[in-house]
Amino acid sequence: KKKMQGGFRSILSHGNVVKSAILQRMR
């Protein structure tokens, strides 16, 4: 279970990075 949590966390952080990049592009 710990392994899955770590992977999920990395995916969430990656999603945040993509979101911020998209927001900057829209500006």
Short characterization:
This protein is mainly α and 27 residues long.
Descriptive overview:
The chain is mostly helical and 27 residues long. It has one helix and no strands. The chain has one helix at residues 2-26. The N and C termini lie far apart (39 Å). The mean pLDDT is 85.
Descriptive tags:
mainly alpha, rod-shaped
Helices, strands, pairings?
Elements: H1 2-26
Main sheet overview? none
Strand content: under 5%
Cα-based radius of gyration, to the nearest Å: 12 Å
Cα(first) to Cα(last) distance is: 39 Å
Question: Number of helical segments?
Answer: 1
